[in-house]
């Protein structure tokens, strides 16, 4: 038989635990790191890179993925200045979108100087929606992955919609996955474009587990095929985040290319949506 003292101790422990559970859930939500693809703020970054980075940090973004522009890979800043600017604002430059072209050696060297971990090819380096072309590109990606590894970088690829076209019953994106070395080519899945293409990201997480260390989290207006604020489009964001471990994701970058008002207001709305999850 329990003594009165034991009953009180157990009851107190239960009460404290009940109070802590919501806080633990809130803490876990706060610890989820969300980054942003700077193309979301392309015009503002071109006008005032440092001022825009400050506004992005104020929204609660903690990781940055750069994007090449007419002012270079870092919107007119040097790799070193971009790195220090982010760090001064409590953010970290972890990735960057680049082209796999004749200047790739310089691109890699700048990326290494910036301290970023990933170098992501943002579009197909050659034309041709054929199986042979995608196999050729896969070989190019493996080589680029080897070159990046020598400089302490990780190479990857960011999809759009067109990679999910089929040729003779074979999805072209699958050709890239099947013919690239997972230790050399790290896929950045743009979830919005996958859904627009009529494919299921969760099916890819199951078929190619832990092949997607980077995400572009982008809700999409399915009729217009344009990005929109979270919760207004066809992406089941809560379900995708619930299965994020299956994908092997390490960095989640929010990207929005079209806006109801301004990119800053849209990003605030997106972050508020994520906090509710």
TrEMBL record:
<dbReference type="InterPro" id="IPR036237">
    <property type="entry name" value="Xyl_isomerase-like_sf"/>
</dbReference>
<keyword id="KW-0413">Isomerase</keyword>
<dbReference type="GO" id="GO:0016853">
    <property type="term" value="F:isomerase activity"/>
</dbReference>
<dbReference type="Pfam" id="PF01261">
    <property type="entry name" value="AP_endonuc_2"/>
</dbReference>
<dbReference type="InterPro" id="IPR050312">
    <property type="entry name" value="IolE/XylAMocC-like"/>
</dbReference>
<protein>
    <submittedName>
        <fullName>Sugar phosphate isomerase/epimerase</fullName>
    </submittedName>
</protein>
<dbReference type="InterPro" id="IPR006311">
    <property type="entry name" value="TAT_signal"/>
</dbReference>
<dbReference type="InterPro" id="IPR013022">
    <property type="entry name" value="Xyl_isomerase-like_TIM-brl"/>
</dbReference>
<feature type="domain" description="Xylose isomerase-like TIM barrel">
    <location>
        <begin position="57"/>
        <end position="277"/>
    </location>
</feature>
